[in-house]
Amino acid sequence: MNLKTVGMISSYRGLDQRADWLWQQSPHQFGVWDNIQIQALAEKPDFLLMYQFDFPQPSQQRSWLDKWRRKPQKPELNINSSLRDVPKDRVIYLLREPPLSEVIEINKRNYQEAQKYCGYISGPDDFVPIPDYMPAIWYHSNSFRELNEMPPPEKIVPCSWVTSGISRTANHRQRLEFLQLLQSSDIKFDLYGRDLPGWAKKSGELGNKWYGMAPYYYNLAIENYAENNWYVSEKMWDALLAWCLPIYYGGPAADKLLPPGSFLRLPSLDAKGIAYIQEMTATPDAWYAAKDAIAEARQIILHKLNLLNWLSNFVAQHS
């Protein structure tokens, strides 16, 4: 088969410098999936993925992440050279972050700019040209074959939460308030993450999420955004791929993508939510009841929702 090469550029720090970006999401060497090969740095790719890419903006409309980090304004990027002569109908723009109120105007501007260069523009919100769920990526370093073929790992601890101390939006701050409420309860759970506040009782940071999820029956998967029908993130995929039963706080997108019973829905980020976590994690019964549904969900994530599978289907339709 004549493989089509998919290049990639991103505003995520470091990603556009990695030749092997997404290679772990395929059972084949060098990022091959069916009719495509993901080669982020390919000089002359057949298709180009602009993944969470921030177009150059005036200083007053800079990326919220750059503003938060107080990074200096970057020199203006030559977009045309970054496109590597890929025709417009073969350039894909996927914005994967949620439409938080603090960044809606920046997102809208990115979509507007993308229409100059990209034939397909999508994101998990209602004001993008093509609203859609974001294809799945995950943050375990296990190989695809290992994830695909493994039985459930030994589960020995009730519950974990892998999160961060980011507090730059109201939604982030709400999650931290819930963390404080959870830690003031008598619920047994292990907390992992970076940049957590000093009051957080954490078990440390993780180089590989697997070790903070695989030994646990349950994992708290709490989204930064739960207000529309499109957004669901790697928080769900990571938990399920580690054979956890997610206790999930987010919008209804997950219900449409995953089989019934493959996750538990946290009702709210308040005392009612605390009581629910306490009830569910008191025994592993819910995990045992959900084990078959978790197995089914894992196969859907690996084979259907996988970003490489999405790209393969796109290329097949546009070649």
TrEMBL record:
**Domain Fucosyltransferase C-terminal per the UniProt entry, residue ranges:** 162-268
This protein's UniProt keywords = Glycosyltransferase, Transferase
Against SUPFAM superfamilies, the record matches this protein to:
UDP-Glycosyltransferase/glycogen phosphorylase
Q: Which GO terms describe its cellular component?
A: membrane
Q: Give the domain of life.
A: Bacteria
Show the GO MF annotations: alpha-(1->3)-fucosyltransferase activity
**UniProt cross-references to PANTHER family, sorted A to Z:** ALPHA- 1,3 -FUCOSYLTRANSFERASE (PTHR11929), ALPHA-(1,3)-FUCOSYLTRANSFERASE 10 (PTHR11929:SF194)
Family as reported in the entry's similarity comment: Belongs to the glycosyltransferase 10 family.
The name of this protein is: Glycosyltransferase
Q: Which organism is it from?
A: Atlanticothrix silvestris CENA357
